[in-house]
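Issue: copy button drops trailing tokens. Both records pasted manually instead:
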Amino acid sequence: MRALFFGTPEIAVPSLEALCEVAEVATVICQPDRPKGRGLELAPPPVKARALALGLEVVQPTKIRTDEFAESLRAKNADVAVVIAYGRILPAAVLSAPRRGCINLHASLLPKLRGAAPIQWAIARGERETGISLMQMDEGCDTGPVFTARSIAIGDDETAGELALRLGGLAASMVRDDLPRAVQGELVAAPQDELHATLAPMLTKADGAIDWSGTAQDVHDRARGMSPWPGAHTTLGGKLFKVLGLRVAATTGSEAPPGTVVAFEHGKVRVACGVGAVHLVSGQVEGKKALDAAQLAAGRTLVPGIRLGDASAA
């Protein structure tokens, strides 16, 4: 099997490595290098770094909707293109370049959570399981027929970053076991049930804002779903306050308004929610270093009566 590989971030690296075990990888296509760090120096995406270490050809097109790019892919005489977290919607000319088209490893149990951020929204919306769907790509957004899907449970306190690492390993196992069977025609792709489709749109910084009026579980799910990016945040005395770690408190809460710091207990700061309460484990005031709950309480940054997210303080 001769294959192309489209992918960019860390979650795609295990699948690239797995593809090298079951196919001849003709070319790796990933996003261009991006500025990173305080110096904003150009840094290669994880897939590029790994592909070069494996001795593979890497292409980083700035435009993919050109005749020249599609023709360059057709010239590779590939049987299939494997796609995972590439970061762009592929046009028809690219989708049809390999003999068997493009097969995507999407990080949800389709038709649930179609779109750019399925891992983050699965957690933020309180899903208890997710997985990887191996699907034949069409011109829609994750709308193509599905060959097979494998599920995993989402941990009670698992963040999106942690879940992505596990899903990356699951996707790699499907590249080894299921992809060859799909390309050889041993697996038949089934249409998705449109009645059960949901969307997982691209994240913005605003999606990390904590709504303390929700239940404690809602608040906890949103915070861990937005980690590491865009990061959960609220306001404290008119300043941005990054919520770096939360746990659901084993308490019935209090009559305090949502977002109110109720107590410091067991090394954590208890914050009232609309229903129940959460324990804030760590946080960071804008312009200052990250601190754990004990430090935030000792420095009187968070003391009983202070209200997080209070618009009147802004």
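Record 2 (pasted manually too):
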Amino acid sequence: MWKWIRIPKGIALLAFLLPWMTVRCSGQTLVEASGFGLAFGRVTAMGQAAEASDGASLNLWLILALLAIAGGLVLLFLKGREAAKFVLGTSVAAIALIFTGTWRYSRDAILAEAAKNGQSSGLDQAALAMIRVDWEIGYWLALLSLIAAAAMAWLVTSGSDTDAEAKMRSLASGRKDDEPPES
């Protein structure tokens, strides 16, 4: 099972290239972004690519998540099974960093930021209430693949990976555990 952890870790890294977030107002798309776009401040606003000129748009949490995923992949290739705890740690850390890094793009956070900036008139509140933030396939794929990598690394650290792999092979071949393999 150890060698298979590379697959979900690699998928998590590639998921940053896919669409992660779409912000809509009254059905019209205002902003779209991939995982890398959110991390490095490059989004598509109203159909045109936009990049913030200041460093404030960099999302350090998502950059750290990328580094955790890449670090876990490096450990998988350079170290043996003894790195399973570190691979588990990088997967869990990446999940936490993604949640932390994307919280500021939630609808509640956007409304709170607008209220803090003085956009609290009745008309502005009505417009802000129509904002919808949709999390796209890349976001969910990254999270699910990191959960799978963490579960697989946990099985390896607990020593249950050989049992789990044997059960998966028996299920795939269609025989029960107590049946001997066909010759």
